[in-house]
Specification:
The chain is an alpha/beta fold. The protein has helices spanning 18-25, 38-51, 62-73, 87-90, 95-100, 116-122, 152-164, 176-183, 187-191, 217-229, 238-250, 255-271, 296-305, 328-342; strands at 6-7, 55-59, 79-83, 103-107, 133-139, 169-173, 196-200, 211-215, 275-277, 284-289, 308-309, 311-312, 317-321. The structure holds pyridoxal-5'-phosphate. Residues 61-63, 66, 87, 139, 143, 172, 174, 200, 202, 211 line the site of pyridoxal-5'-phosphate.
């Protein structure tokens, strides 16, 4: 809880803890555009090792890391297959078209998990009438499908298909931490299903800023130039990287508790008259308003007036995300307030 408010809009609303702030203040830094900032270098090596990749590069945002991957894997006038509700398709401002000159080919799925069969059907036949498919994008966990985890066998099948067709796979793992914790597998296991992976330190791990793109060292060396072109080169970036290193040491463990609180929140919401909630795999709860008289904007603003923040995400739908600044007391307060508002 911050300032007496339970903020469940996103796991990006966290504030750096005193320990994280101390680590940032004490970070050893240098100009990362002129050479290598030593703390950023440590973080990049550590994340690459965690993800089982040769190298990684720090980016200011997940959007920029994802779009760098699209630019690196494709060429203008080609097509990338992605899930229909994915971040890369809906929430990156048509950057794939704008920056990479690439058309996205969105494919609808059950719970955010494209199957190899879906992907196979979307890959262009390679004749003279269609664009050429150059990339497959997967999102895990899947944000708009309520933080759903793409099962490992599904990830592996997509990778096998992509290899067979000589296509790279990019994994938008903004919340890969949650995916691995929920599936009980290592970060490297999930990452091994893709050529490049984006991870965000600013989601779930409590950092103020920061994402990384990991992959083969040659490609990540090229990613440096793409990042520069996109205006993402930063100077004493070790101050941000120090927050990331601190988070990896202290905040990965807490994810399971976030997932439990999300399940608790969903269960109780589902029991309230007028509400339905999907059982979450991780930390994102999708709440459906089932009564005609309930409007998502009105419910959200009534909650806000009583100190609870939840995000309206479409007609009759609210999203509540658990994170390290929401404890049991916060969930209790949210449930109590929600039942008053709905009543
Ligand atoms: C799945 C997913 N990918 C990428 C991003 C983009 O991250 P950023 O907000 O740092 O650009 C988000 C942000 O919410 C996300 O949920």
């Amino acid at each position: 809880m911050n300032d007496g408010i339970v903020d469940l809009r996103s796991d990006t609303v966290t504030r750096p803890s005193p320990g994280m702030r101390r680590a940032m203040a004490e970070a050893e830094v240098d100009d990362d555009v002129l050479g290598k900032d030593p703390t950023a270098d440590r973080l990049e090596r550590r994340v690459a090792a965690l993800l089982g990749k040769e190298a990684s590069l720090f980016f200011p945002s997940g959007t920029q890391a994802n779009q760098a991957a699209v630019i690196l894997h494709t060429r203008p006038g080609t097509e990338a297959v992605c899930e229909a509700e994915s971040h890369v398709f809906h929430y990156e401002y048509a950057d794939a078209a704008w920056l990479a000159g690439v058309q996205l080919h969105p494919v609808a799925s059950e719970r955010g998990a494209l199957t190899a069969r879906d992907v196979a059907a979307a890959i262009r036949p390679g004749d003279r009438h269609h664009p050429v498919t150059t990339l497959v994008c997967v999102e895990n966990t899947h944000n708009m499908h309520g933080g759903s985890v793409v099962p490992m066998p599904v990830m592996q099948a997509i990778q096998a298909l992509a290899r067979e067709r000589s296509l790279p796979v990019h994994l938008d793992g903004a919340r890969l931490w949650n995916a691995a914790a929920a599936a009980g597998v290592s970060l490297a296991d999930v990452s091994s299903c893709a050529d490049t992976v984006t991870v965000c330190l600013s989601k779930g791990l409590g950092c103020p800023i920061g994402s990384l793109l990991a992959g083969p060292s040659g490609l990540i060396a090229d990613a440096w130039s793409v990042r520069k072109r996109l205006g993402g080169g930063m100077r004493q970036v070790g101050i941000l990287a120090a927050a990331g290193l601190w988070a990896l040491d202290h905040n990965l463990e807490g994810l399971r508790a976030d997932h439990e609180r999300a399940r608790w929140l969903a269960r109780e919401c589902d029991d309230m008259e007028g509400l339905r909630a999907d059982v979450p795999d991780t930390n994102i709860v999708m709440i459906h308003l089932e009564r005609e008289d309930l409007d998502e904007e009105a419910v959200a603003s009534e909650l806000e007036a009583r100190g609870v923040r939840i995000l309206p995400v479409g007609p009759g739908r609210l999203r509540a995300v658990t994170h390290l600044d929401v404890d049991d007391q916060g969930i209790e307060h949210c449930l109590e307030t929600l039942s008053q508002v709905v009543a």
